[in-house]
């Protein structure tokens, strides 16, 4: 049952993430079709706000919303591969579903295919940097201040929408989902494979680089485990008082 709830959280969370990206792009275009800066700003601000809320809301269940994050989690043996695959599937389905609903919300055809070409070395480098940085922010913040993850991740994504040439997809599910909207935030189907491959490659490199960078000394890890066990025993309703 817990795994089912996690899959539902991944589906709904990823759907809302795509609705945010696509919907804010459509709204910005409707408000000021000639100003690209306003469009990018609207997408960045909306994504930052909604992603923060989503991570807080689903934090007790599951908040990957990104196959690259799930891949890294599996590589770090924090989730079994047999669970990682369903995660990735529902994330991609949620992304497509969220995009289609957003098209309908703005009275556009539900099924659209984007013709926005995002192709070239600069775009791929942008995706590599965006994804590499995202994984680093997640791993570093989890180690140093886990409570700050919703803010750190969301602020990074919002900022990376501006500082990367690709406007920070950094997410294979987002990349696939955005194929299905012929609006400013879409991506041409032929541009998807290089984006996704770049994201996956950058995520794997980041996994091992930041895994090394943020590694805890073995003695410290063992001490943390002992302290956690001690707290659990003290808080257990079945624990007996220590005498002596």
Please characterize this protein's 3D structure.
By secondary structure, the protein is an all-alpha fold. It has one domain: Glycerol uptake facilitator protein (Up-down Bundle), CATH 1.20.1080. Helices cover 71% and strands 0% of the residues. α3 runs parallel beside α8. The chain is globular and about 60 Å long. The C terminus is likely disordered.
Throw out a few tags for this protein.
244 residues, Glycerol uptake facilitator protein, 71% helix, disordered C terminus
Give the SSE map.
Blueprint: H1 2-31, H2 36-58, H3 67-75, H4 81-105, H5 121-145, H6 149-163, H7 172-177, H8 192-213, H9 218-235
Helix pairs in contact: 1-2, 1-4, 2-6, 3-4, 3-8, 5-6, 5-8
Radius of gyration: 20 Å
Uncertain residue segments: 236-244
The biggest sheet, with number of strands, parallel, antiparallel or mixed sense and barrel status, is:
none
| Strand percent estimate | under 5%
**Subunit arrangement of the protein:** single chain
* Secondary structural class: mainly alpha
Would you count the extended β strands for me? 0
Q: Quick one: CATH superfamily?
A: Glycerol uptake facilitator protein
């Amino acid at each position: 049952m817990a795994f089912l709830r996690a899959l539902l959280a991944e589906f709904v969370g990823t759907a809302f993430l795509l609705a945010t990206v696509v919907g804010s792009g459509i709204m910005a275009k409707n408000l000021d079709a000639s100003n690209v800066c306003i469009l990018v700003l609207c997408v960045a601000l909306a994504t930052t706000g909604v992603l923060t809320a989503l991570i807080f809301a689903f934090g007790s269940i599951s908040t990957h919303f990104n196959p690259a994050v799930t891949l890294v989690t599996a590589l770090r043996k924090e989730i079994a591969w047999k669970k990682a695959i369903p995660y990735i599937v529902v994330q991609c389905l949620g992304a497509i579903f969220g995009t289609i609903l957003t098209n309908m919300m703005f009275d556009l055809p539900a099924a659209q295919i984007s013709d926005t070409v995002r192709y070239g070395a600069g775009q791929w480098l942008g995706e590599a940097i965006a994804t590499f940085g995202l994984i680093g922010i997640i791993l570093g913040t989890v180690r140093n201040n886990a409570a700050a993850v919703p803010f750190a991740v969301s602020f990074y994504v919002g900022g990376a929408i501006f500082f990367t040439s690709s406007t920070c997809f950094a997410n294979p599910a987002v990349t696939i989902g955005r194929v299905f909207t012929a609006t400013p935030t879409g991506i041409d189907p032929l541009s998807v494979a290089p984006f996704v491959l770049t994201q996956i490659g950058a995520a794997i490199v980041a996994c091992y680089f930041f895994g090394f960078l943020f590694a805890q000394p073995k003695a410290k890890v063992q001490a943390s485990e002992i302290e956690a066990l001690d707290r659990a025993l003290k808080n257990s309703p079945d624990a007996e008082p220590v005498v002596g």
